[in-house]
Design goal:
Blueprint (H helix, E strand, L loop, with lengths): L4 H14 L3 H33 L6 E5 L2 E5 L9 E4 L9 E5 L2 E4 L1 H4 L5 E3 L4 E2 L4 E2 L4 E5 L7 H12 L5 H32 L3 H15 L2 H20 L2 E3 L2 H7 L2 E7 H5 L5 E7 L4 H11 L6 H10 L8 E7 L3 E6 L2 E6 L1 H6 L12 E7 L2 E9 L6 H10 L4 E5 L4 H11 L3 E3 L4 H14 L5 E6 L5 H6 L2 E5 L5 H6 L2 E3 L6 H35 L5 H19 L8
Parallel strand pairs: 11-18, 11-20, 18-19, 20-21, 21-22
Antiparallel strand pairs: 1-2, 1-3, 3-9, 4-7, 4-9, 5-6, 5-8, 10-22, 12-17, 13-14, 14-15, 15-16, 16-17
Helix pairs in contact: 1-2, 1-6, 2-7, 2-19, 5-6, 5-7, 6-18, 6-19, 7-18, 7-19, 8-18, 10-11, 18-19
Length: 557
């Protein structure tokens, strides 16, 4: 756009030289440049925290092929290949440690300062720094699906998404700048042509008017404020996908959360085996084999408890029944394993159900064979996160889960959630979410927090969708507006606080800039303000607004 703050500054400076006010003209240029320097310093400081993410991108990966170590590009590493990470190097691709013991610096990914110890069988997230020992890691994802690649993609997208406040400033400047140019011409010519007043005096007033009218404070400080806010969040392991998301997040008044993996740990432990008409070993064997091809955490817990080698040849066709369970052919027999809705669908009545835990019912060839009780404990910080949300004025905190009512009620009571809905399918969650979106009052935002594939539709539909990025599924992360990299629910109230602070600072800058600007324009028109006052009204207020905007990040100067 030609008619911007740079255009106004050039016109004012050139005209000042033309009427013999060389000192004032030079001062306009010098102080305008000083204002740019303030902005550059703030942007570079904030960008440093985001550029650290870019530095996590691996240049090469040391893979093991045919017994030899060779360096290849990260895109050339196949899922299942082994690679070596030496102390001081970053984990290049999400994987599982196969050999070696070490500590990982996860700060760049999760925002946590405490290193995490890893051993064979444990996960290693890309972007973390290997601190102490050499590791052999199996690549569990392609590089394009790893944490680092997802983070970089989100960061790149966030810069293009402007907050409503930023869009207002852009639209405002589009009409404001041409208007003040016309007004300045009127100030310079109308008093002389109509009333015969001295030409030089009114031209000088018009120049002062032009300098005062430069919208530097607005067009620089407001986008910078949101940029600093996004940078501050990323420093804490919270990826906010642009200023528009931050704007909506600041208005949060309803939070809807998934249970498993969001409020709870998502790591399941056996509570008991309850056979019906079969032995415990028989029930556990068929349950484990039916879950063999599933990657659900419950499946892993059952298979781990079975503790024996499973012959894939015994496993036939397996069908995942979303929100209900699984149907698998085992040794020529049809095994259904899942929740009570699955049993209802196949016409089987569960017997002797034990409450207080998640129940995996098993039916073999259409006959009920018992159930396995599995418990999933709340995360240590979930209760504190719910309390902080309520302290922030969030009116409604609701938990939705496909788990049974007894298990869901127990978790809700422990963490302090007042309302919950249980025994839900993915489409049920979306329907309930639509209901909240329809009946809500005021202009608040609804936030949905989840981690699984079944949460992706709700994450995408909410005003602000939040995904637990460490253990979250790819579809959940891709649908999300906010990604919490360390899977701690306490990061949500922190994200809301950062967003509210950022939005508040942006509005402070708008009020400061417009208030001072309009007062100074009136004084300039009346001849009560000279060029030095105009310079302060432009560059001085811009510098103040920029410095104030950087508070969204923290201490910069």
């Amino acid at each position: 756009m030609i008619l911007d703050e740079n255009f106004l500054t050039v016109i004012a400076s050139a005209s000042a030289f033309m009427i013999g006010a060389e000192i004032e003209g030079a001062a306009v240029m010098i102080f305008f440049r000083i204002g740019d320097m303030f902005e550059d310093a703030a942007v570079q400081k904030t960008r440093k925290s985001i550029s650290e993410l870019v530095e996590m991108q691996p240049v090469s990966v040391r893979v093991v092929r045919d017994g030899k170590e060779i360096d290849v590009g990260p895109e050339d590493v196949a899922v299942g290949e082994y690679y070596i990470v030496l102390p001081g190097e970053r984990i290049p691709i999400d994987g599982t440690v196969m050999s070696g013991y070490s500590s990982l610096d996860t700060k760049a990914i999760t925002g946590e300062s405490m290193p995490r110890d890893v051993a064979p069988g444990e996960s290693a997230l890309s972007g973390c720094i290997n601190m102490t020992g050499a590791l052999t890691v199996r690549a569990d994802r392609a590089y394009s699906d790893s944490a680092v690649a997802r983070i970089l993609e989100l960061v790149e997208e966030s810069g293009a998404r402007k907050a409503k406040t930023e869009k207002f400033i852009t639209a405002f400047a589009k009409y404001y700048t041409p208007s003040v140019v016309v007004a300045a011409i009127a100030v310079a010519t109308v008093p002389t042509l109509i009333f015969g007043l001295p030409y030089e005096a009114w031209v000088y007033r018009a120049l002062v008017f032009l300098v005062v009218s430069c919208p530097c404070a607005l067009v620089l400080s407001v986008p910078l404020t949101f940029f600093c806010g996004v940078g501050r969040a990323s420093k804490s392991g919270i990826l906010i996908n642009g200023g528009d998301v931050m704007d909506r997040l600041a208005l949060t008044d309803t939070v809807v959360v998934d249970k498993t993996g969001t409020v709870t740990k998502g790591t399941f432990e056996f509570s008991g085996i309850h056979p019906h008409g079969v032995t415990e070993d028989h029930l556990l064997e068929y349950a484990a084999k039916s879950e063999y091809r599933s990657d659900h955490p419950i499946s892993a817990a059952i298979i781990d408890r079975y503790g024996r080698e499973i012959d894939p040849g015994e496993i036939g066709k397996s069908v995942n029944l979303a929100g209900k369970g699984i149907r698998t052919e085992v040794n020529g027999r049809i095994v259904h394993a899942g929740n009570s809705k699955l049993m209802e669908d196949i016409g089987v009545e569960p017997c002797g159900v034990h409450g207080g835990a998640t129940c995996i019912h098993v039916a073999i060839d259409g006959t009920y064979s018992g159930h396995i009780s599995i418990s999933d404990e709340p995360k240590e910080d979930s209760a504190e996160a719910i309390r902080e949300l309520k302290d922030l004025g969030v009116k409604n905190v609701v938990m939705l889960t496909g788990d049974n009512m007894t298990s869901a009620g127990r978790v809700a009571e422990i963490v302090g959630i007042d309302a919950f809905r249980s025994d839900l399918l993915p489409e049920d969650k979306l329907e309930i979410l639509e209901g909240y979106l329809t009946v809500r009052e005021g202009k608040g935002s609804l936030v949905y927090v989840g981690d699984g594939i079944n949460d992706a539709p709700s994450i995408a539909r909410a005003d602000v969708g939040v995904a637990m990025g460490n253990i979250g599924s790819d579809s959940a992360v891709e649908a999300a507006d906010v990604v919490i990299m360390n899977d701690s629910l306490r990061r949500l109230p922190e994200a809301i606080r950062i967003s509210r602070r950022t939005r508040g600072i942006a509005y402070q800058n708008i009020m400061l800039s417009l208030g001072f600007k309009f007062a100074a324009l009136a004084l300039a028109t009346l001849g009560l303000a000279g060029m030095w006052f105009a310079i302060f009204a432009d560059v001085g207020v811009a510098a103040i607004a920029i410095i104030n905007g950087t508070r969204a990040y923290g201490k910069l100067f």
